[in-house]
């Protein structure tokens, strides 16, 4: 589970009377924070939008998402939790075998901002090792649970050799709402090069649980998003596929607790 936010998040697409000012602020934030930036979009000439899924692998949600992606000819990046990889390693390898990219979401869904930088680095390093052992190939990306990171945790993540990846638009699919409503939210701001946050499972904060998991069909939501992209002349791809096709990662600051 994650929530939108962060320095400069959600500014560029506002259409209210202050929209122009927000766009200027967003441009300044982007240009001035690349040194401490996280990947938040892709600059590309291809008709690509990046699909990402957090919190798996999950034998129900992940299987449905994989079926929907296959039917729509799309690929995605899956940010996984290694406590679930330990239980569902076969599903992890199936996901990779179908051409999707695997990335790290952490050992569990605790906010990294609760830990000091040395412990953050140790947690990320250990979980990266477990994931790469299970997968048999290196991983490149890391997404902090809840998108929660500070400058010190960002530096700790970077010290492990992984790069933080956040997002632009999101489906808000940690909420238990009808698929059409979630799909409509996902399509807001989903343009060429955007990174969409979705989930193939549900992971609460182990220290502060907030409620029951949503019950909607994650495969149906994925199909609706893939179809919506097609209607816009776009195709959902993994972050790796977008970059391999000539895209360039765009980085700017994202810090929130």
UniProtKB/TrEMBL annotation:
Domain NodB homology: 47-237
Name of the molecule in the record: Polysaccharide deacetylase family protein
Classification via InterPro entries: Glyco_hydro/deAcase_b/a-brl (IPR011330), NODB_dom (IPR002509), Polysacc_deacetylase_ArnD (IPR050248)
PANTHER family reported for this sequence: 4-DEOXY-4-FORMAMIDO-L-ARABINOSE-PHOSPHOUNDECAPRENOL DEFORMYLASE ARND-RELATED (PTHR10587:SF137), GLYCOSYL TRANSFERASE-RELATED (PTHR10587)
Superkingdom classification of source: Bacteria
Organism: Amycolatopsis ultiminotia
Pfam families the record matches: Polysacc_deac_1
Cited PROSITE patterns: NODB
Gene3D superfamilies xrefs: Glycoside hydrolase/deacetylase (3.20.20.370)
């Amino acid at each position: 589970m994650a929530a939108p936010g962060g320095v400069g998040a959600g500014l560029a697409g506002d259409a209210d009377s202050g929209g122009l000012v927000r766009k200027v602020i967003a441009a300044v934030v982007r240009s001035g924070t690349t040194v401490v930036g996280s990947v938040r979009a892709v600059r590309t000439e291809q008709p690509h939008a990046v699909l990402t899924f957090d919190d798996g692998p999950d034998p129900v949600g992940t299987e449905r998402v994989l079926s929907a992606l296959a039917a729509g000819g799309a690929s995605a990046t899956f940010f996984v939790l290694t406590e679930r990889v330990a239980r569902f390693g076969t599903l992890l390898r199936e996901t990779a075998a179908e051409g999707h990219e695997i990335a790290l979401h952490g050992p569990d869904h605790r906010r990294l901002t609760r830990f000091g930088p040395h412990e953050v680095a140790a947690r990320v390093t250990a979980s990266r090792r477990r994931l790469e052992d299970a997968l048999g190939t290196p991983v490149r990306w890391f997404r902090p649970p809840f998108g929660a990171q500070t400058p010190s945790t960002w530096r700790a993540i970077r010290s492990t050799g992984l790069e933080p990846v956040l997002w632009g638009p999101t489906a808000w699919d940690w909420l238990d709402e009808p698929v059409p409503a979630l799909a409509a939210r996902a399509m807001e701001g989903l343009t060429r090069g955007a990174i969409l946050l979705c989930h193939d499972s549900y992971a609460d904060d182990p220290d502060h649980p907030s409620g029951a998991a949503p019950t909607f069909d994650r495969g149906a939501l994925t199909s609706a998003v893939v179809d919506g992209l097609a209607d816009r002349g776009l195709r959902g791809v993994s972050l790796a596929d977008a970059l391999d096709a000539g895209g360039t990662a765009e980085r700017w600051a994202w810090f929130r607790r």
